[in-house]
């Protein structure tokens, strides 16, 4: 007696689609068959994209999709990580006798290499300093960021930017340079050399006025 099995040939994209659909509904985990009861709860974790590392209270437990059973009723810190994506985190409350379903979306990560002309500009992202140019920073794709670039000799440059992929960003400060003016003297001079620096005008204005000496410590 022989039983015959029909064979199938799938196009590659069709096969991938079927596999993704199966994985999306498949519970995988150390407690796959655990049920919620009066003394424990169950957590089912899904993500976009799939195959993200799941950390529960900083303990790595597996990859999504993931089912975790026999959980004590309390609050847990959950974190999902995947290469080239920004980590997602949150707090999950587990209750006895309940199944808690978690669905988290991770955004792709891009690397932005920032250069400036001239170099040595301070980079601010959303008003937080991140370092001097040239510098490579990581950002979340498709999200808007407020960039501000400052240089001691030039006017600030501000831009709101978002990125969909890795990018090299070059910032040009232009030709308008800051002018420095000394204010001081009088009784302060008897105590030593006391200078107050005040920003006013441009280098072009300084040339019209015959020029001014550089502030202390500057050429």
> How does the major sheet shape up?
4 strands, antiparallel
Question: Considering DSSP H and I runs of 4 or more, what fraction of the residues is helical?
Answer: under 10%
In N-to-C order, the SSE pattern is: HEEEEEEEEEEEEEEEEH
Q: Give the strand order of the largest sheet, numbering strands 1, 2, ... along the chain.
A: 3-2-5-6
Cα-atom radius of gyration: 30 Å
Low-confidence stretches: 180-219
Mean pLDDT level: 76
Helix/strand-derived class? mainly beta
Task: Give the count of helical stretches.
Answer: 2
Please summarize what this structure is.
By secondary structure, the chain is mainly beta. It is built from two helices and 16 strands.
Secondary structure elements and their pairing?
Layout: H1 12-24, E1 41-48, E2 53-56, E3 59-63, E4 66-71, E5 75-81, E6 88-93, E7 99-105, E8 109-117, E9 122-125, E10 128-132, E11 135-140, E12 145-151, E13 154-161, E14 167-172, E15 178-183, E16 196-202, H2 203-208
Parallel strand pairs: 1-7, 8-14
Antiparallel strand pairs: 1-4, 2-3, 2-5, 5-6, 8-11, 9-10, 9-12, 12-13, 15-16
Polypeptide structure, described:
The structure is a single chain. With 219 residues, this protein is mainly beta. The chain contains two helices and 16 strands. The strands form five sheets. Strands 3-2-5-6 form a four-stranded antiparallel beta sheet, with no helix packed on it. A four-stranded antiparallel beta sheet has the order 10-9-12-13, with no helix packed on it. It has a three-stranded mixed beta sheet with strand order 4-1-7, with no helix packed on it. Strand 2 and strand 3 form a beta hairpin. The longest helix is centred in the first third of the chain and has 13 residues, at 12-24. It is elongated and about 85 Å long. The model is unreliable at 180-219 (pLDDT under 50).
């Amino acid at each position: 007696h022989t039983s015959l099995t029909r064979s199938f040939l799938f196009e590659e994209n069709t096969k991938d689609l079927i596999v993704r659909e199966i994985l999306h509904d498949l519970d995988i985990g150390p407690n796959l068959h655990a049920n919620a009861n009066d003394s424990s709860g169950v957590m089912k974790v899904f993500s976009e994209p799939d195959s993200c590392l799941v950390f529960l209270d900083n303990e790595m437990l597996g990859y999504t999709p993931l089912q975790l059973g026999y959980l004590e009723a309390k609050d847990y810190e959950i974190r999902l990580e995947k290469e080239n994506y920004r980590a997602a985190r949150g707090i999950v409350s587990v209750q006895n006798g309940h199944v808690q379903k978690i669905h988290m979306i991770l955004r792709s990560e891009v690397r932005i290499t920032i250069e400036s002309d001239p170099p040595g500009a301070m980079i601010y992202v959303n008003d937080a300093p991140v370092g001097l140019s040239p510098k490579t920073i990581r950002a979340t794709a498709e999200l808007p960021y407020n960039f501000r670039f400052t240089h001691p000799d030039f006017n600030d440059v501000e831009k709101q930017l978002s990125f969909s992929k890795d990018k090299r960003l070059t910032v040009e400060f232009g030709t308008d340079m800051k002018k420095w003016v000394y204010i001081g003297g009088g009784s302060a001079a008897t105590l030593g050399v006391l200078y107050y620096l005040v920003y006013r005008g441009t280098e072009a204005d300084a040339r019209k006025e015959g020029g001014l000496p550089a502030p202390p410590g500057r050429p």
